[in-house]
Amino acid sequence: MIQPILCALSALLLALPAAQASPYLPASGDQVIEVLPGGSGARQLERLRAALRAQPQDLALASKLAQRYIALARSDTDPRYLGYAQAALQPWWQLAAPPLQVRILRATLLQSTHHFDEALKDLDAVIALQPDHAQAWLTRATVLTVRGEYAKASASCARLSSLASELISITCIAHIGSLTGRALQSEQLLEKTLQRSDAKPELRVWVLTLLAEMATRRGAASVAETRFREALALDPKDSYLLGAYADFLLGQGHPLEVIKLLKDQSRIDALLLRHALALQQLPDSSSALTSLVKQLNERFNAAMQRGDTVHQREQARFALYLLQDPATALVLAQKNWAVQKEVADARIYLEAAVKAGDSAAPVAAWIKTNKLEDVTIAKLAKQLKAGS
To answer: What is the 3-state secondary structure (H, E, C) of the chain?
Structure first.
């Protein structure tokens, strides 16, 4: 999942899913590659595609279509849309210095495939040309946060104070503060800012989700539950929110609620994984669980064959809990940690380390350096220390 995040902050201005973005080329012009949902949105998308086919060098059309695909990729957690977005930008994709709007979109797609260095290069180029570009600063903060470079991320957040709304700039700052020893203060600041904001529903959903995760990390389950439900009332189909709430419910021992929550979400690998984890907590579910494990195994194997390493966090979780293979889970968690360092990445690394008898030294050092406050992480770290 986006988890990631990835991640929530970038979605405040532009949807930023975390998935593979390699363009897909059908075998023939007759091959059906996607059946879009009906309605005016699908018709608008088809009009854009037809217009771009007629004028493939039209930058405005290409950018608009790419943005629509990115939004769809995030809402559906479907990596194919990211490939379509890249294809729309193909005339400019390989340019060393493409137009500014292409650079922003390219950075979005690059960060979604964990090409963080390349994404930062594009973002820095945009900022050099346009120092007041709010999206570039926010996306830069997001990338740096995912990499665990919090001082640099905070500096980018600080630039937003005069460029974006109060809620967006405070969300950026509070998110980092909640991970670096200022958890409760950051949560309270963000909650008060949201209360006095008249933000649009999509922004409120993201902030409420972040607040729910903050409450979860400090063990305030009832507060987290209220915030998750408030966010779901605004957008019951947001895939990141569904994943975060499902994880919360799994942690609270409510597998039936997870199954009910995700019953129509089998297309999304990360949510299918959580569905399987919920089934694992239930008696008399071995047949259904076996079927889901087989599906997930096929999907993760297919991802590996096409070189997609973005979902190693989920794959590590799959290996640890559903395949009962802690050694493989630990290797995957270590590879994932080398690329991104969010709380969920630390957690699966620690969980695998406990089962595999590893010290998880890099994660332990990261927790100490950043003064991370998380009740679940603290318990895992204690288990590791007791077993050493």
So the answer is: CCCCCCCCCHHHCCCCCCCCCCCCCCCCCCCCCCCCCCCHHHHHHHHHHHHHHHCCCCHHHHHHHHHHHHHHHHHHCCCHHHHHHHHHCHHHHCCCCCCHHHHHHHHHHHHHCCCHHHHHHHHHHHHHHCCCCHHHHHHHHHHHHHCCCHHHHHHHHHHHHHCCCHHHHHHHHHHHHCCCCCHHHHHHHHHHHHHCCCCCHHHHHHHHHHHHHHHHHCCCHHHHHHHHHHHHHHCCCCHHHHHHHHHHHHHCCCHHHHHHHCCCCCCCHHHHHHHHHHHHCCCCCHHHHHHHHHHHHHHHHHHHHCCCCCCHHHHHHHHHHHCCCHHHHHHHHHHHHCCCCCHHHHHHHHHHHHHHCCCCHHHHHHHHHHCCCCHHHHHHHHHHHHHC
Q: Exposure string (b/e) for 112-149, b if CB count within 10 Å is 16 or more?
A: bbbbbeebbebbebbbeeeeebbbbbbbbbbbbbbbbb
pLDDT recorded at residue 152:
97
Are 204 and 234 a contacting pair, CB within 8 Å? yes
Mean pLDDT of 114-118: 94
pLDDT-derived band at 13 (thresholds 50, 70, 90) equals low
| Amino acid at the residue 88 | A
Digit-coded pLDDT (tens) for 296-319: 999 999 988 887 778 899 999 999
- State the average pLDDT for the chain: 89
* pTM for the model: 0.88
